[in-house]
Write a structure and sequence with these properties.
Helix content is about 40%, strand content about 10%. It has about 375 residues and is α+β, with helices and mostly antiparallel strands. The chain has 2 domains: about 10-275, no CATH class; about 285-355, no CATH class. Helix 1 (about 10-40) packs across helix 6. The chain is globular. The relative contact order is 0.15.
C-alpha cells in the first residue's frame, strides 16, 4: 500500500529505486550465495536481509551547534520546529554544499531518483534527508564524519527509505530498499571480502559480518579509528518529525553542561524521546595528525585551542563548534586565514581527524 504521508514525488522516488533494485536483484542473489558458500555460512540471503530489516537502525548525524542561514543553530531549529530538514532547506551541510538547482547534489538526485524530485512544482521541503544504516549499532552513528550527534530513527522509517552502498556523491551503482536490499548486501559482502575495512569493520570477513548481523547481542565498540568514507547511505523520504519518527537523540559528551547540551535535553523532553550520550572523540592539541587531512590542520587546531579552550582541555566536538560559529559570525577575526569557506572546510577536516584518530572522552 502506498504511504499516504508521502507526496507524489516522494512516492515516485521510492518506486524508482525499488524498480532499479528489482532489476539488479538476480545478480545480487547469485553474488550473495557465492559469498555465503565460500565463507561456510549456513544461512540464506533471505535470512540476512530479514536481519537487516529487524535490527538495522537509521541514524542521521549532525553538528547541533552549527549556525543556519537565519542565524539559529541546528539545535535551536530542532527545538523550535520539531522536524529535521534537508540541505535544500537549511543551506548547510557537513558534506559538500551543492544542494541547489544545477548543483552536484541536485544532479545526483536527478539520476538516483529518476527525476522524481525534478518534476514541476516539487518543493525543497520534499527532498530526501540523508543518513546511514547503522547495522552494528555503532554508538556514534553510522556516519560520524557528518556530525558529532545523531538522531536514531524508529524502525518504521525504514519502509520509506532508499539505500546505496557508499555516499551518493561517489555516484554508486548498488541501490535498494528495505524489502529489496540484496544489491546493497551483495556490495557490502564484496567489500568486506576484498578489504575488511568497510563500515569500520576492520578485519571482519563476510562470515563474521553475517554472524554478527544475525546473532549480535552487544553493540559495536567505541574503538578509535572509525571509517570515514565507507557506509551504507540512507535517503529518507517524507517529513522527519522528532516526536513521531525519532527513537533517541544521541549526543557527544563534550556538550554536557553547555547551552547546546541543555537545548538538546529540552528537545528530547518536549518530543518524548530519550537523550543518550556516546563516548565522544578527543585528542590533545599537540596530537593532531598532519598527514591525514593536510598540514593546514594542526596549526588551525592550535589556534582554535588557544582562543577557545582552557589550557588542559583537549580538542573535541564542542570546541570545534565554537570556532565554526565564530568563523560565521565574526569573519573578520579569521580574515588572515583567507576565505571564510576555506576556514570552515578546514574545521570540517579537523573534525575528520578527530573521528579518525580520537579516543573516547575521559570519564
Amino acid at each position: 500500500m502506498p504511504d499516504p504521508t508521502l507526496t507524489p514525488a516522494q512516492a515516485a522516488a521510492l518506486r524508482y529505486v525499488r524498480d532499479v533494485a528489482l532489476r539488479d536483484r538476480p545478480a545480487a542473489l547469485a553474488a550473495i550465495a557465492d559469498h555465503l558458500a565460500r565463507s561456510g555460512v549456513a544461512y540464506r540471503s533471505a535470512e540476512v536481509v530479514a536481519a537487516v530489516a529487524a535490527h538495522g537502525r537509521l541514524t542521521l548525524n549532525f553538528h547541533p551547534d552549527r549556525p543556519l542561514r537565519d542565524g539559529r543553530t541546528v539545535a535551536e531549529a530542532l527545538d523550535q520546529e520539531g522536524v529535521y530538514r534537508s540541505q535544500f532547506e537549511t543551506g548547510i551541510s557537513n558534506g559538500g554544499l551543492t544542494a541547489f538547482p544545477g548543483g552536484d547534489r541536485d544532479r545526483w538526485e536527478q539520476t538516483l531518483f529518476g527525476g522524481a524530485y525534478h518534476r514541476p512544482g516539487v518543493l525543497p521541503a520534499e527532498r530526501p534527508k540523508y543518513g546511514g544504516l547503522n547495522l552494528l549499532d555503532h554508538p556514534d552513528g553510522s556516519c560520524p564524519r557528518f556530525g558529532s550527534c545523531h538522531l536514531r530513527l524508529r524502525p518504521e522509517v525504514l519502509a520509506r527509505s532508499t539505500f546505496s552502498f557508499g555516499d551518493s556523491a561517489t555516484e554508486p551503482s548498488e541501490f535498494g530498499t528495505v524489502e529489496i536490499f540484496e544489491p546493497v548486501l551483495a556490495a557490502l559482502l564484496t567489500a568486506t571480502a576484498g578489504t575488511g575495512v568497510s563500515l569500520g569493520l576492520a578485519g571482519m570477513d563476510p562470515d563474521t559480518l553475517v554472524r554478527r548481523l544475525l546473532h549480535r547481542r552487544e553493540p559495536a565498540s567505541d574503538a578509535a579509528g572509525r571509517a570515514l568514507d565507507d557506509y551504507i547511505e540512507a535517503q529518507v523520504h517524507g517529513e522527519l518529525s522528532l516526536a513521531r519518527d525519532v527513537e533517541a537523540i544521541v549526543a557527544d559528551p563534550s556538550f554536557r553542561g553547555t547551552d547546546t547540551g541543555r537545548l538538546l535535553i529540552g528537545v528530547a523532553r518536549r518530543n518524548g524521546v530519550p537523550l543518550c550520550w556516546h563516548a565522544g572523540f578527543e585528542l590533545p592539541v599537540d596530537g593532531i595528525d598532519a598527514e591525514f587531512r593536510g598540514p593546514a590542520i594542526p596549526p588551525l587546531a592550535a589556534r582554535v585551542h588557544a582562543e577557545f579552550a582552557r589550557p588542559e582541555e583537549p580538542v573535541h566536538a564542542a570546541l570545534i563548534g565554537r570556532a565554526a560559529a565564530s568563523v560565521v559570525r565574526e569573519p573578520q577575526r579569521w580574515a588572515d586565514r583567507g576565505p571564510t569557506d576555506l576556514t570552515l572546510q578546514h574545521l570540517k577536516q579537523l573534525w575528520h581527524v578527530l573521528v579518525r584518530f580520537g579516543t573516547p572522552a575521559a570519564g
